[in-house]
Amino acid sequence: MIFSLKAARWAFSASAIALVTGLAACAPQTTTNTPPSENTSASPAASSAAGGTVSISGAGATAPNPLYQRWFQEYNKINPNVQISYDSVGSGAGVKRYLDQTVDFGATDSALKADEKAKLAADRGKPVQVPTTGLFVVFAYNLDGVTDLKLSRSTFCGIVDGSIKTWNDPKLAKDNAGAKLPATPVTFVHRSDGSGTTSIFTHHIEKACPNWKAGAGKTVEWPVGTGAKGNEGVTAQIQQTKGAIGYTEYSYAKENKLAMASVQNKSGAFITPAPEAAAKALEGAKIPDDFALKVPDPEQKDAYPIVSLTWVLLYENPKDPAKAKAFNEFLKWSLKDGKQYATELGYIPLPEDLSTKVTTAVDTIKVSATK
User: Fold this and answer.
1) What sign does the CA torsion over 56, 59, 62, 64 have?
2) CA distance 156 to 207
3) How confident is the model at residue 234 (pLDDT cuts 50, 70, 90)?
4) Could you report the per-residue pLDDT of 107-140, keeping only the tens digit for each?
5) Who has the most CB within 10 Å: 122, 195, 347, 360?
6) What span, in angstroms and rounded, lies between the C-alpha atoms of 248 and 142?
7) Phi, psi (rounded to 5 degrees) for 314
8) CA 320, CA 371: separation in Å to the nearest integer?
């Protein structure tokens, strides 16, 4: 399958609405019952509760958390009997809880590996891994007087490997002619927990930085820097530290009004982080059958370079078919009516052809009898 811009009809809003309250918190959040709005109608998920409340729990990636919370909130307005809580603990913890079967669904920004798939108990069937949206990772920074920072590949490589130690380094000065760069030490902020955002970021670093030795994945041995938990924690650490720079998902930096650097892509262009530019990185991409798409260093000349899909993890044979059925209906709603909220918050909605394939995969889940 080809990831098509035309099919997606990317329509990005000129202004984004505020993210849900508590973006800086890592605790699980549960939607509350709210009367349906006048212009919406309840989906079949409401009837699956048979008059009672269906409480669904998930855990995992922090990058899509703002969107997920918004989706849960809006969906609950039209389906008051369906309440979905989500613990924003990072992809590593989310995958573990999914494999341990302590949640109804997991979430990850790093597609499952073969050895992880093999750990799922046989009675749960095959792992069902489906994308929910596209997202992108930015270099956010805290540097007085510098509002339009540019980072060439050699420069951001030097920041993450520790060879660039101060903001007035000659490489940074060359990238930013005319900018008044201070002698302030560079403080690189990275994730301390197992993180799909780290996986996205380090897979790009591995491609872009010839001297990178730490590899790529949800956890790496960082040669330099300060760790923080979750996109929430990295964002807060950057806010609190003069001279800090780190990687976080775009919506976190945007909502917290952090400055974001323009990043040089493979073609040599400096690209300002924006949903439109991020979407170009996915244009024409071939989606594998398990949806585990990777675009660590996109070729497109106008593409922002640090982009990925993000996935939810479901059970082919769920313990509770009623919960699975209700969550499946929520997912179908998110792929259609939920696209407007993805756009508003700065995520990349899935195109129609990919949404159709996701729906087909979700329909393989057995919801007629307890397994």
Assistant:
1) negative
2) 12
3) very high
4) 999 999 999 999 999 999 999 999 999 999 999 9
5) 195
6) 13
7) -120, 165
8) 8
